Amino acid sequence: MFSLWARFTCAGVFAFACMAARATDFTEPRGPLTLSTALNAALQRNHLLRNADFQLRIVDAQLTQAGLRPNPELGIQLENFGGSGAVRGTSALESTLSLSQVIELGGKRQARVQAARYGIDNATIEREAAQLDVLAEVTRRFIDVAEAQEQLYVARGNAALAQKTFAAIKLRVDAARSPVGEQSRAAIARGRAQLIEQQAESALRTAHRRLAAQWGSSAPQFGDAQTDWFDLPRTESFAALVARLKTTPSFLRFTSEARLRDAQWQLAIAQAKSDVTVGAGIRRFDETGDTGFVVNFSMPIPLANRNQGAIREAALRREQVAVDEDAAFITTQANLFEFYQTLEGSRAEVLRLRDDLIPQADAAVKQLRDGYERGRFSYLELAEAQRELMELQRAAVAAAATFHRALAEIERLTNTPLIASKDPQ
Q1: 11, 74, 115, 135 - which has most CB atoms within 10 Å?
Q2: Does an H or E element contain 143, and which?
């Protein structure tokens, strides 16, 4: 049995990803492939995680920008020149050199910085959630590879059995103990088994390519997937799993977003307060050669546009977070229940097929083959038994795949390893 979160829990995922992102060398997985090796490769090269890393760097730049103060302004003003009469030319020129500064009031800068910091927290949790999604997708595609591999084993076994049956019937036909028509039917069955084997090989190659794409490779180099395919132990109760939902990044993001919305609301309130501009300078009178100091002060008159709309918008967005969280919890709980039922149902199906039906079908094939060689049973009875055995084997592989997929989805939703890992990695 292989388990995704038994190797990568939420607490360790982000640190592991940072370590992997710093790795300068990437080695394409080769040879037998374990799930941990596939996850390792994806954490280093997956394009979605690289985009998430860019987002973290973006919000860090936004924090830097939020902490900047307005720059002072240098101004020069020329008056009483180029006119007529006494102010003709520059004889009465008055020139003023001033330096002014906008002073932000209402805690705007602090509010911007706080909002940007919560933005970093939110982006960090989003990065962790994205990483869990990537791990889950790699696990799904690894399961696809393992299932295609198991189906190929079944197809090869069926093709070998069809070849063995054809050889046995040919001997009987050559000995004039069976009609030629039975040899033709056996040849057709053998051909169909070979076609199924070829289709299974094609499906496995496709699954390999889809998995390798998760670490940016278009030419898979790895071999067989290493799994305990039919090891399907029991997990925790549904109630225990529900209790863990709100500790996952998917729901921690709502807490982080709520803090961010609160900070944005405070920023909107701060921005409603007008800033003031103060300045000072020196004025020179060319007519007399005298100089004097000037001081200026200005602020907007708050007759309208006090940012009421932005404040209301920020408050509504904060309230929306709680509504979204409640809706997400109900939906996630329903999905968890569906996966849990699928998990239990597929386990029961595999156990019944593996421990009961397949052994009976296998024994029936052996008995019918022995009886056919003695002339006690017809070829149609033997062919039907072989077809039924193959269908049961394929059904067992598909049911086990359903179990593994449901388990991976439950672990993604709860961010919890449900089954202890046997992999020392």
Answers
A1: 135
A2: helix 108-174
Q: What single-letter DSSP state applies at residue 89?
A: T
Q: Is 282 helix (H, G, I), strand (E, B) or coil?
A: strand
- What does the alpha-carbon distance between residue 275 and residue 101 come to, in Å, rounded to a whole number? 10
- Our measurement of the distance from residue 140's CA atom to the centroid of its chain's CA atoms, rounded to an integer in Å, reads 11
Count CB-CB contacts under 10 A for residue 272.
15
Residue ranges of alpha helices (H) inside 243-293 are: 249-271
Question: What domains lie within the chain, and their CATH numbers?
Answer: 10-69+104-272+307-414 (1.20.1600.10), 71-103+273-306 (2.20.200)
Strand ranges (E), 65-123: 73-79, 94-103
Residue 212: its H or E element: helix 180-212
| 266-276 average pLDDT score | 73
pTM of the complete model = 0.71
C-alpha–C-alpha distance, residues 26 and 9, integer Å: 23
Are the C-beta atoms of residues 253 and 126 closer than 8 Å to each other?
yes
**CA distance linking residue 204 with residue 151, whole number of Å:** 9
> For 219-254, b where at least 16 C-beta lie within 10 A, e where not — what string?
ebebeebebebbebeebeebeebbeebeebbbbbbb
Distant-in-sequence, close-in-space partners of 64: CB < 8 Å, separation ≥ 6: none
List CB contacts of 190: < 8 A, sequence separation 6 or more.
159, 162, 163, 165, 166
Average of per-residue pLDDT values in the chain? 80
Structure tokens at 208: 């390999």
Distances (CA, A) of 378 to 176, 242, 342, 366, 412: 15, 56, 40, 14, 52
> Which of the two residues, 275 and 185, has the higher pLDDT score?
185
Give residue-wise pLDDT tens across range 199-242: 999 999 999 999 999 888 888 889 888 888 888 878 888 888 88
